[in-house]
Design goal:
Elements: H1 2-16, H2 20-28, H3 61-66, E1 86-91, H4 105-121, E2 126-132, H5 162-172, E3 176-181, E4 185-188, H6 200-206, E5 216-219, E6 222-225, H7 230-246, E7 251-254, H8 268-277, H9 287-309, E8 314-317, H10 323-328, H11 333-338, E9 345-346, E10 349-350, H12 361-371, E11 378-383, H13 392-399, H14 403-414, E12 418-421, H15 424-428
Parallel strand pairs: 1-2, 1-12, 2-3, 3-7, 7-8, 8-9, 9-11, 10-11, 11-12
Antiparallel strand pairs: 4-6, 5-6
Helix pairs in contact: 1-8, 2-9, 4-5, 7-9
């Protein structure tokens, strides 16, 4: 009974003080604590802190920082990376997979060298590499199992450190490295084929403690971490702290996967526990605002952990370009842009053409740029390399074959800090690319 009462009290505190960790960060930066946001949902859909409670069976945040080594501490960072226009590419986990029979260090090094040499040939200066795709890790982790990407089986270790190889090889070529993390996703459909026994989800489901059974939820065949719980947020924060402590990363980035849907039900138990814990006479947050609060507390905790651990590493968020879609995913982009303590850079995924029938590129870019005007936040844009030469967006990529070069030129003219291309596999076969303009 005591456990249940404590659990409800924790949920109440998370709701009554929704921006606690952000206030701490903002106070440290001399900023005004954030206030509730007014969310803009005026567009049509284009297409479909650090927490005080540690998760069970894992080390505390202090232990994770003090007991890990820093093998790459003396690796040089790219020259003048902070001042140069970002010209980057996302490298998703699929691009890092090794063929059966070639799953060894030698083939991995060869693959990485080839990829990074290709990035240099295209005049890029940044790679954003997906190292945490499914509640797992492409590096040795105290918190998450080895990814199935390298061996075919989650939890099966390799005898080398893939991320160490990536960081060293990239920095040798003066390429900045941002570690791309998906904080919530554990599985989708049949990916990965199976979860390792040390996966936190499996531990929580198989132990004798019923209180942690709701630390995850399922939706549409997928499994996700539930950020309503301080212990879950702490696990994700500790995982990011570990990354930054162990590798001289130039940045950490999360993508556009937050809550999987605006639908009700999949986190009903945690939301109802929160509602019942609200004091009589007080108005509980709506489901959508409560979910945004949970996400915001996580982001503020990640931001603080990164800067406490390695001050030179920046934290970025890459939301969808469509404001309505972000609202449905509980991504509080207006709050992140308005208040300090959430991110160092924003990179909306503007995967639209110059003449998109609903969202023409310039109008959407201008709207995003207006959110960070006079704010200490760098603004990059994600560009749809994968749509070049296709009939996407009502055929506008075919009717205007110069889309990508026009978009890059417009961003430079507007004073945007750079761009990221999605994704690496399309870079391999792209000839020529409009990247060699005067910077």
């Amino acid at each position: 009974m005591k456990k249940k009462i404590l659990r409800v009290l924790v949920l109440l505190l998370a709701a009554v003080i929704p921006v606690l960790c952000t206030m701490l960060v903002s106070r440290a930066n001399g900023a005004v604590p954030p206030s509730p946001s007014v969310h803009d949902s005026g567009e049509a859909t284009a297409a479909a802190a650090d927490e005080s409670v540690s998760p069970p069976s894992v080390l505390s945040a202090a232990e994770s920082t003090s007991k890990v080594s820093v093998p790459n501490g003396n690796t040089a960072h790219p020259d003048d990376a902070a001042e140069e226009e970002m010209r980057g590419v996302w490298i998703p986990y699929m691009s890092l997979q090794l063929k059966e029979g070639e799953r060894d260090e030698s083939h991995f090094r060869q693959k990485i060298d080839t990829m990074l040499d290709n990035c240099v040939r295209h005049d890029l200066n940044t790679v954003v590499v997906q190292v945490r795709p499914f509640g797992d890790a492409l590096y040795p982790s105290r918190w998450f199992p080895w990814s199935h990407i390298l061996t075919g089986t989650q939890g099966q270790a390799v005898d080398y450190d893939p991320l160490d190889i990536i960081v060293r090889a990239a920095h040798h070529r003066h390429l900045a490295v941002h570690a791309w993390v998906n904080p919530f996703r554990i599985s989708t459909g049949q990916t990965p084929p199976s979860l390792g026994k040390d996966n936190p989800y499996c531990r929580w489901q198989n132990d004798s403690d019923p209180d942690n059974d709701d630390y995850t939820f399922t939706y549409d065949g997928g499994i996700y971490y539930n950020p309503a719980y301080p212990a879950v947020r702490q696990l994700i924060i500790d995982g990011v702290r570990e990354l930054v402590a162990n590798y001289p990363l130039d940045g950490v980035q999360i993508d556009d996967y937050f809550y999987p849907s605006e639908e009700e039900g999949y986190d009903r138990q945690s939301y109802e526990a929160y509602r019942h814990a609200v004091s009589e006479g007080c108005q509980p947050l709506s489901l959508g605002e409560w979910r945004k609060t949970n996400v915001n507390m996580l982001l503020a905790g990640m931001y603080r952990a990164i800067h406490q651990t390695r001050g030179s590493t920046v934290f970025g968020i890459a939301p969808q370009c469509n404001f309505d879609n972000n609202e449905k995913l509980s991504a509080d982009v207006l709050c992140w842009c308005r208040d300090n303590g959430y991110m160092d850079y924003l990179c909306p995924q503007l995967y639209v053409s110059m003449n998109h029938p609903v969202f023409p590129f310039k109008a959407l870019a201008d709207r995003w740029q207006s959110l960070v005007t006079d704010r200490p936040i760098k603004l990059y844009f994600g560009l749809a390399l994968y749509k070049v030469g296709t009939d996407a967006d009502g055929g506008t990529w075919l009717s205007d074959v110069d889309n990508l070069s026009q978009e890059i030129a417009y961003l430079r003219q507007s004073g945007v800090d750079g761009y990221l291309l999605y994704a690496y596999d399309y870079l391999e076969n792209a000839t020529p690319l409009p990247l060699h303009e005067t910077h």
